[in-house]
Amino acid sequence: MTDIAKTDTDNLLEIRDLKVYYEIKGSVLKRTVGVVKAVDGVDLAIKRGEILGLVGESGCGKTTVGRAILRLVEATEGTVSFNGRNVFELPPSEMKHLRREMQLVFQDPYSSLDPRSKVGDIVGEGLRVHGIRDRQERHTQVLKALQLVGLQEHHMRRFPHEFSGGQRQRIGIARALVLNPSFIVCDEPVSALDVSIQSQVLNLLKDLQGELNLTLMFIAHDMSVVEHLCNRVAVMYLGKIVEVATREELFSNPQHPYTQALMSAIPVADPKAKRERLILEGDPPSPLNPPSGCRFHTRCPEAIDRCAVEEPLQIDLGQQHLCACHLREPVKTPEAIG
């Protein structure tokens, strides 16, 4: 097995065996009648200054991974190390300080902003929480954050309902930037926006990442968006990571059957071009009762008997390409050959 979260000084964030389970209570006595395995053993590493895309179908656990990293939901098992510190072991006082370094951009730009507060107060709330009491200093930092995302000083005096969807998402990004973090989880930040606005927000994120040397986890279900923005991509299915590779390697040489199906759904701009569409049969299984063995075997067109009984481990295919599939062979190193 290849440990994709191997300790590396280049890694800002390392996730090891992350599990997030939710108990289902039933009957009058509130007994546990089932467990939803939203995230079930995720290993992942995010390098400093990179944009890592986390992709998969709705309900596969992408958002739960992002929220568990930030401790917005409590993990059942596993560790998350940020700059070498285990996030799950930090006391509340240290966790509050760490939150300045780790921020979140929400999916919905409408419901994530308080409609009763002005933009200046929304963006500046984090500064007040972290003890910056001087009003002029808060004003200066809020204005700087707004200008970074293309807004102006007069926007500080307006309410969220006076802005378009794209502008609201810029406000959400400014709120995340105002504390000068080093890591931001972007939870499908463009999925609720018009296509014409999506590109503007994506270009903004890419420019900010380069200008501020940010590290981003970009959660999405649209592979074309990930191809435009991310340096590396992790593909998730039913609570597990099935493939990890650089953007170039993944889009030119997808190995896992699930990744191949996702790739086949990307629209092609040329009307004369033809792409074979891989249609997956059935619906994704429930995380309440996931399949044995490989979780994708119930929908996989290449599944063999082994897939139903044995869970595949991550194997190294070379070129920084990792895949959890029984049908793929690991790259042979010189040591193994000799």
Describe it.
40% of the residues are buried. With 338 residues, the protein is an alpha/beta fold. Helix 3 (119-129) crosses helix 4, helix 3 (119-129) runs parallel beside helix 5 (165-177) and helix 4 (135-148) crosses helix 5. The protein has a single domain (11-101, 181-267, 275-337), classed as 3-Layer(aba) Sandwich (Rossmann fold), CATH 3.40.50. It has ten helices and twelve strands. Strands 6-7-8-3-9-10-12-11 form an eight-stranded mixed β-sheet, sandwiched between helices. A four-stranded antiparallel β-sheet has the order 2-1-4-5. Helix 6 links the parallel strand 7 (183-187) and strand 8.
Which properties best describe this structure?
single chain, eight-stranded mixed sheet, disordered N terminus, 12 strands, four-stranded antiparallel sheet, Rossmann fold, 10 helices, 338 residues, alpha/beta
> What share of residues are in beta strands?
15-25%
End-to-end gap: 20 Å
Number of strands: 12
Please summarize the sheet with the most strands. 8 strands, mixed
Helix content: 25-40%
- Determine Rg (CA atoms, Å): 21 Å
- Tell me, rounded to a whole number, the average pLDDT: 90
**Largest sheet strand order:** 6-7-8-3-9-10-12-11
CATH superfamily: P-loop containing nucleotide triphosphate hydrolases
Q: CATH topology, what is it called? A: Rossmann fold
CATH class: Alpha Beta
Count of alpha/pi helices: 10
The total tally of domains equals 1
Looking at the overall shape, the CATH architecture is 3-Layer(aba) Sandwich
Contiguous uncertain segments of 5+ residues = 1-6
Structural class: alpha/beta
Series of secondary-structure elements, N-terminal to C-terminal: EEEHEEHEHHHEHEHEEHHEEH
